[in-house]
Task: structure prediction
Amino acid sequence: MANVSTMTVSRALRGRPEVDPETCRRIQKLAQELQYRPNTGAARFRKGKTGMVGTVLQTEAAPLAVAGQVIVGDFLVGISQHLSEYKYHGVPIFERELQADDGPEGPVFFRERCVDGLICMVDSSDQAKQVLRKQQTPVIWLDTTEQQSRNCIWRDEYQAVVEALRALRDAGHRKIAYVRTEVGRVEPQRHPSAVQRSEAYTRCVCDAGLVPQKMDVKQLISRLLKGKKTPSKKSLTAAICYGLREAFMLSRLCAEHGIVIPRDLSVVSLDANIASNYYWPQLSCVPYDRQQAGELAAQMLLKLIDGQKFIKSVILPAESVVGQTILPC
Result:
């Protein structure tokens, strides 16, 4: 109908500059009249691509609560937004599928080439990692203990603790507790940040010449109540919480026992997401833009899919503390 080659039609529909403008307009008009729509999937299939990216999630729901399912959702939003810009689609894959005994060719989604690459948000077993290496599938490790020099993204948890301590010490606090997470305390269900944040707190507090005091929420409340009975022996004035779950629990128990935040206790969370907007007064926290991290992971993976051999790992810097739950000591 257009009396031109297939290659010219393809180039005209993509608006390539080497096609004569008049020919390009004529072909595009014909395509519109025929209600033609490019088949991106077919084009990728011809190049041996599926247009699909797998996002590997924890098999069980409980360990996801370590960082909070809302937070995992933040990663997925960022991943999906970037993939959609390049006509890719994300599909969830549970870790157990990497460990499935499907024969020498590995899990079905490898055997049938269901995805072009993976973004792993869980600490996979050695068996799962062997499967990934054998299949030579492009992988980006996002927020896991896989913190190597290539193809990984994680936040600088040490710097996050430094920022939290700096904000409290600038307000005059010297007796600062660390409220640890109680979720998934039995390995291997712990999120890597559970260890990193706790160790960073101990190191930073000792470097500052202070005394480390780690405890769970109930133990902290008990200490505070003893301090109210004997004000002269008040031992704690501030707390750094592992995350939002601990900060919310601390806030609820403080309210039940007449302890006012931040009048009686200054609080900083080492994490934040949209749920922190419902904390009053505004929770002082070290923000972690997981949506941005998800976008970055997708960007890195697409480069690997396009043939780049490896991507230099990215350590996300910790941001400064924001919020209203710190008062001068």
